[in-house]
Amino acid sequence: NAGVTQTPKFQVLKTGQSMTLQCAQDMNHNSMYWYRQDPGMGLRLIYYSASEGTTDKGEVPNGYNVSRLNKREFSLRLESAAPSQTSVYFCASSEQGLGTEAFFGQGTRLTVV
Amino acid sequence: KNQVEQSPQSLIILEGKNCTLQCNYTVSPFSNLRWYKQDTGRGPVSLTIMTFSENTKSNGRYTATLDADTKQSSLHITASQLSDSASYICVVSPQNTGGFKTIFGAGTRLFVKA
Question: Does B61 touch chain A (CB under 8 A)?
Answer without folding.
Answer: no
